[in-house]
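step=predict obj=FtsX-like permease family protein n=828
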Amino acid sequence: MAPKRKLFQNLGRPPGARFYTRMLRNYLKIAWRNLLRQKAYSAINIIGLATGISACLLIFLYVGHELTYERNFPDAEHIYRVVSRVNFHGNNDLFSLSPKPLADHLRREVPEVKKVARLAPSFKQTIWKDQVPFLEDKLFYADSTFFQVVPYTFLAGNPETALKAPKTIVISAELAQKYFGGTEQALGKPLQFSKNQYTVTGIFQPEKHSHLLANAFLSMVTREEAERAGKDTETIAQEQNEWIFFAYYTYFTLHNPAALPTFEQKLADLVQRRAVPWMKENQITASMELTVQPITDIHLNNDFQTDISPSGSRSYVYIFSMVAVFILLIACINYMNLATARSANRSREVGLRKVVGAHRTQIMGQFLGESILITLLGLILALAMVELSLPVFNQLTGKEFALSSFLNPNFGLLVLAILLFVGLVAGSYPAFFLSGFKPVEVLKSDKSPRGSNAWLRRSLVVVQFTISLVLIIGTAVVYSQLQFLKNKSLGFNKEQVVAIEMPKADSVTLSRMPVVMQELTQNPNILQVATVNDIPGEKLSRLLLLVEDEAGAEIDKTMNVMFVSYNALELMGIELTEGRTFQKGIPTDAKGAVIVNEAGAKWLGWKNPLGKRVQVTDHDAKVIGVAKNFNYTSLHNPIEPLMILPIPEGSRYLLARISPQNAEATLTFLEQKWKAFAPKHPMEYFFLDDYFNRQYQAEEKMLTVFGYFAALTILIACLGLFGLASFTAEQRKKEIGIRKVLGSTVVEIVLLLSKDFALLVLLAILIASPLAWYGMKNWLQDFAYQVNLSPWLFFTAGLASLVIAVATVSFQAAKAALLDPVKSLRSE
């Protein structure tokens, strides 16, 4: 067939795959040539997108980690625990612990339950290896059914039988390596504790991505045998039926997960049939509600007292997710601004393509393809940036992320979604704008036929700097609040106080303690010593007390309690407004005296607190003093009523106030005395101020992350501003040359070119300030004590942004102003 006839027969046929392949190849070639032709703009675009994408990937890595706690357990969404809400006289307490009798009743009376298991935390215990003591934490007593409910991966042993016998223990792979040199060597071997010897019956792989951060599980029957020792059958039975003794974390699974509503109803019925009659019989005025919590909800929904580990923050997950989106949006805006600003350079190309028959959709496809290509290059660079920044990011977040995390299918889909999102969003408006040029207009002139895109560029610059300013102001507010929290007077002195964790009390320890304390005070660098059961900064116990009201009647009240020794209040600098502190020379103070804080006296309605009667568990006492209010918990919370009691026996902490001079020598002295006092227990200590400030770790983390990403947003915004300023200077090169010929100075030209950009940043400041004020005011509502949002803070943040933006633009403006006007006019 003749070529001409073949050509005419092919006309009108729909193009095939080969045609589209050639067209795509052509578009890629053109896109690559444009990248190489405009190296500076391409570099700005790619670096800006890479910075934004890398920040976004890091944040979503963290967010994904926070949202997937417990997911490593098989069927994690069908594992639950029972939590408790108790109301004592208007006081609502939320406990992650559940009543002591609950598990037995669930086994016997609720057929929907497949398996139920109790978990109880243990104090730190000393484990011996080759005559060397090691103090271990994260130890738990667990029922034999625990591993059938929470299915840890076993490396050795049988999870169904490992904890059935007394004095058996299941240890983590790390402890197996530490004490036995490996998993295989550990199974069946004895592990020597201070008072008991346990047999290793299993080794498990610990889950770091869980609220259950455990080093070992000890058999629950061991704990129960110790609790029953020396008690008669009646006493044991009474203790087993104490419904307000919240002793265990209770986990369970169901035969059929769909039966959860039925189980919840039966759980409520169980409280009415068992707990309510028991409380009435024992004259306890309280109400109780037991509810179900999936373990997958624990990490981000944890408002409970006495939980196993610190929780995450759902609000911070939302905040960081918004920051990631904002950073990505700023990077996209950069691309859109630069692409539309350079429209005049591409206008003839668009016009020629339309003349030879290109449709608007084809031209849009070309520009979108260029956008995706640039985004792909930015993504590749972003992954390299993520790899380089991961060590620092891990240090900031306290996690152990690796680039291999992106091999996870979910993260792979996230990366693909980011590529398409950025490529399409960043390229959509430039593609739509450029493809709309009319051939006649653009071929008559090398200028863009429309000036209407200038308002959009200005708007996008304002959006960029508004987002950047909100993050900068937010960072400044978080920093100010954190400094306020750390420096506010708490009503006690936490500085230079060393807290040493005491071994479990026994008769020998108790008898030697006064001698050791006397020896410590002989060191001139140790100013005071005392023992306590509770310290500021930790969750205190709550006790049901029978107190005398102002009219002389007795009422039940639940209050926070703190157990201290005779001189502990003086050591911590806690002042009294009335009465006296505990005194060793008054025998009745050992059990018959209490001190209430001002908030407690007010809450109880006491106008004259001294001498009021308080029944504490099994004995009566009288109020001998009123402590001035002090913040014994973080400043997230107001000061709550508190009852201070003398330690009945033993203590958890030895406190020593030391001189700031020769601190290292003093600590060495303390260690030497500790070895003589408790040679079987290694000395574990911390400073009280560090311990108290740990309550603000979430805010510390937020400040650091906000600071870094606020800096990134301003960097990305300035990159775009730099590109726009460069383009503006190029477009106004002739004007600048004429002005110089007519006598304009370099400073005048710099001001001329910088003025418009400065006005845009000022507009962004006006928009960002109320937005930041509203957002940070809401954030500060989480604190009982708040820093004032000073106008100077907003002014300083705005001024800093303005200076950075003007400096960025002025660099390009000065560069243009210094060009020889003759060359500028000749090139035109």
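step=describe
Confidence is low (pLDDT under 50) at residues 6-12.
step=end
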